[in-house]
Specification:
By secondary structure, this protein is of the alpha/beta class. The protein has a single domain, classed as D-Maltodextrin-Binding Protein, domain 2. It is built from 12 helices and 9 strands. It has helices spanning about 1-30, 45-60, 80-85, 120-125, 130-140, 180-190, 200-205, 215-220, 250, 255-290, 300-320, 325-340; strands at about 30-35, 65-70, 90-95, 145-160, 175, 190-195, 210-215, 230-245, 295. It starts with a helix and ends with a helix.
């Protein structure tokens, strides 16, 4: 009797172990699906970089993680997408962190005008200690920062007149980002500043509810601003970076190997985006001119006058952001500028 039971028990044990091993193997190799959304149309360098990101994630996770890219704000505004990523209903997002600026004051540093001379300085800071600190600050909001990349220097466009002097800005109804630094900066130089979600800007310009807006040149061209704006002034007043972030809820479900693969893909895609932006900036002015847009460069003397007008805004928000953080940020810029 005992001899007949032993093989049966052994067989059951083997079957149970085999089923358990099969279940574990299935869990390890279960495909993970993730959405990434952003505001740019599919012709923009950011869209190209995010398509590459999806390919790289597939490669570096050995096919374990599949990323679906949604261009052109299909998943909602920057604010809505950030909220979705925080809630865990959207896995990944690339774009501005400006909607977090009221809770994470350090984010506002990027809105201070006239900090940078060129992209080299920008990229040094994007890869530096201050930008890493911002990622640390946003983590309690349910976000994991993967990489920073570029979007470009912001310039002014409008439908009324060529802006080459401080006085030319006076009275222009200009859409600005919905953050306090941008609002006060443009008010300080005489514009009628209007905060508005970017998705609403083109229709407002089309019906002349707005005179102008300010954005990087490639951003303007990809969003067809040449159809509703006749004047562009190259001011390079603010550099707008974007961050690729993951939902912490999503991130915590991943294996260490998949995390490492996604992180590597994010950094490489971010580098590609910078390269594509730099290349695109070289010929976009010619494209605007060919479309009938007058492109003007504001002289150093006039830029100095504008900078003088916004100094009180910089001083005010340096205190809001945190004097020590601002000093550290400027120190990184100075280090890159001096080539040390």
């Amino acid at each position: 009797m005992n001899f007949s039971r032993t093989p049966l028990r052994a067989t059951r044990r083997v079957v149970c172990l085999a089923l358990a091993a099969l279940a574990m193997g299935s869990a390890v190799h279960a495909e993970v699906k993730a959405k990434i959304g952003h505001a740019m149309p599919d012709s923009h360098p950011q869209a190209m970089a995010m398509n590459k990101f999806a390919d790289l994630v597939n490669t570096y996770t050995k096919g374990n993680v599949k990323v679906q890219v949604y261009h052109g704000g299909v998943l909602g505004s920057d604010e809505k997408q950030l909220q979705a990523v925080q809630a865990g209903t959207q896995e990944l997002y690339i774009g501005t962190l400006a909607p977090l600026s009221t809770r994470v004051k350090e984010v506002q540093i990027w809105d201070l005008p006239f900090m940078f001379h060129n992209e080299k300085e920008v990229y040094a800071v994007l890869d530096g200690a201050s930008s890493k600190k911002i990622f640390e600050k946003i983590e309690p909001s349910g976000l994991v920062g993967l990489t920073w990349t570029g979007m470009g220097f912001r310039d002014l466009s409008n439908s009324k007149r060529s802006v080459t002097r401080l006085e030319d800005i006076s009275g222009l109804k200009v859409r600005v980002m919905a953050n306090p630094v941008a609002l006060e900066t443009w008010k300080a130089i005489g514009a009628n500043a209007v905060p508005m979600a970017f998705a609403e800007v083109f229709p407002a310009l089309e019906i002349k509810a707005l005179d102008g807006q300010e954005n990087p040149l490639l951003h303007m061209y990809a969003n067809k601003m040449q159809e509703v704006q006749k004047f562009i002034s190259v001011t390079n007043h603010v550099y707008t970076p974007v961050a690729l972030v993951a939902s912490k809820k999503f991130w915590d479900t991943l294996s260490p190997a998949d995390k490492a693969g996604i992180q590597k893909a994010a950094v490489e895609a971010g580098q590609l985006q910078r390269k594509l932006l730099d290349e695109g900036d070289a010929d976009v002015v010619a494209k605007f001119k060919a479309a009938g847009v007058t492109v003007s460069t504001v002289s150093p003397a006039e830029l100095a006058r504008i900078q003088d007008k916004v100094k009180p805004v910089v001083a005010k928000f340096s205190g809001v952001i945190g004097e020590d953080f601002v000093k550290g940020f400027y120190a990184e810029i100075d280090k890159a500028r001096s080539g040390k």
